[in-house]
């Protein structure tokens, strides 16, 4: 089974190397690596070279690091956006857990036990709408079809059925027409196909506050592309660090793209102190959602939890451990 690796830039290669070590600790896999992001711009003149895309199409799954450097801030991201679009990965699952009390900036009595998944629409909205410059300014447009909304909402409802049976749909229906369509469509799908799932609607500003003041009220949160991008970084406060947030990008065909929620972190790249847990947990999601190997996925998640409990933590979590030390501890805990 071939797993394509797209290490990318900054801390991307550092954390992908950790995830590969952990994968090798639970099974035998073939890996194929391709340049991606600013690294690929330097080497091939484009952030997503044709061979990388072809490799991703034929792979069982793709594990990516992150893209972006100080010299190349916007164009590397375009390679990632193109990859998501080309592979039809419209649903981005971003699980968030309060792994351990006292890890983040929020009070333990507020976050203890929080366990939610943000399902972010990943191939539509402002990210792909017509954009440009005019003589006076610039514009981006947000458009969604009912079909685009329904397919990602279905993913959220199904996920809720396997969890605590509750979906929170987040929009800005008091202002945006796309949000009014979003709300109507999600409501209709819920009534028709998922009557057993409890559905609530929240406006995005209110949801942003509730995420950090009452995170336990959430089970599955479904929202459009840009809101999901912003809310998921905010939700890192619940876990304690962006370095603890993995993601799975899925479509209608098997496979998928698995990557940390965080970026290339140029401020700590090369120091050997990046938190590898988000990448390691992304590898666990790869095992679960692309290779259907849930026991191995659960074993990795348990080993990460044990490592955190044992106090082996990188500086973003207030610890002094290095990337390599955390990786070794996770491997030992398997
Ligand atoms: P970032 O996520 O890279 O970093 C934000 C902060 O979190 C930094 O202080 C960083 O040191 C810290 N951080 C992130 N991941 C960490 C980890 N694993 N361990 C410890 N600390 C960690 O966001 P940014 O600084 O806004 O963006 C940097 C570059 O990354 C930009 O070029 C941006 O476009 C890109 N980016 C890429 C992706 C992706 O490839 N999926 C995601 C987000 C940002
Ligand atoms: C993410 C990132 C990307 C996004 C950027 C790098 C294009 O922030 O994966 O969350 O906005 O989707
Ligand atoms: Mn983001």
Automatic annotation (TrEMBL):
It catalyses: (2R,3S)-3-isopropylmalate + NAD(+) = 4-methyl-2-oxopentanoate + CO2 + NADH. Keywords: Amino-acid biosynthesis, Branched-chain amino acid biosynthesis, Leucine biosynthesis, Magnesium, Manganese, Metal-binding, NAD, Oxidoreductase. It comes from the Bacteria. Residues 2-330 form the Isopropylmalate dehydrogenase-like domain. GO terms for biological process: L-leucine biosynthetic process. GO terms for molecular function: 3-isopropylmalate dehydrogenase activity; magnesium ion binding; NAD binding. GO terms for cellular component: cytosol. Its cofactor is Mg(2+); Mn(2+). It is an enzyme of class 1 (oxidoreductase). Catalyzes the oxidation of 3-carboxy-2-hydroxy-4-methylpentanoate (3-isopropylmalate) to 3-carboxy-4-methyl-2-oxopentanoate. The product decarboxylates to 4-methyl-2 oxopentanoate. Belongs to the isocitrate and isopropylmalate dehydrogenases family. LeuB type 1 subfamily. This is 3-isopropylmalate dehydrogenase. It comes from Amycolatopsis bartoniae. The gene is leuB.
């Amino acid at each position: 089974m071939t797993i394509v690796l797209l290490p990318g830039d900054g801390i991307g290669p550092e954390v992908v190397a950790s995830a590969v070590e952990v994968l090798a600790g639970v099974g035998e896999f073939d890996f194929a690596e391709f340049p991606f992001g600013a690294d690929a711009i330097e080497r091939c003149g484009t952030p997503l070279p044709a061979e990388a895309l072809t490799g991703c199409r034929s792979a069982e799954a793709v594990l990516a690091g992150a893209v972006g450097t100080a010299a190349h801030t916007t164009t590397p991201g375009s390679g990632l956006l193109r990859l998501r679009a080309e592979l039809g990965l419209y649903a981005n699952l971003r699980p968030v857990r309060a792994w351990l009390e006292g890890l983040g900036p929020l009070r333990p009595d507020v976050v203890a036990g929080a366990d939610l998944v943000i399902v972010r629409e990943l191939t539509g909205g402002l990210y792909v709408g017509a954009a440009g410059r005019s003589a006076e300014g610039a514009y981006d447009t947000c458009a969604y079809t009912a079909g685009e909304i329904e397919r990602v909402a279905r993913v959220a409802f199904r996920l809720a059925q396997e969890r605590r049976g509750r979906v929170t749909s987040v929009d800005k229906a008091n202002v945006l027409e796309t949000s009014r369509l979003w709300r109507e469509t999600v409501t209709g799908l819920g009534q028709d196909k998922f009557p057993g799932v409890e559905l609530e609607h929240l406006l995005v500003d209110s949801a942003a506050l509730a995420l950090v003041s009452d995170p336990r009220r959430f089970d599955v949160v479904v929202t459009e592309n840009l809101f999901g991008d912003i809310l998921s970084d905010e939700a890192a406060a619940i876990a304690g660090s962006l370095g603890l947030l993995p993601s799975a990008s899925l479509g209608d065909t098997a496979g998928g793209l698995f990557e940390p929620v965080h970026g290339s972190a140029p401020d700590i790249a090369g120091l050997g102190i990046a938190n590898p847990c988000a990448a390691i947990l992304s590898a666990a999601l790869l095992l679960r959602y692309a290779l259907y190997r849930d026991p191995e996925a659960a074993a990795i998640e348990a080993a990460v939890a044990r490592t955190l409990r044992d106090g082996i933590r990188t500086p973003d979590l207030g610890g002094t451990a290095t990337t390599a030390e955390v990786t070794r501890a996770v491997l030992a805990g398997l």
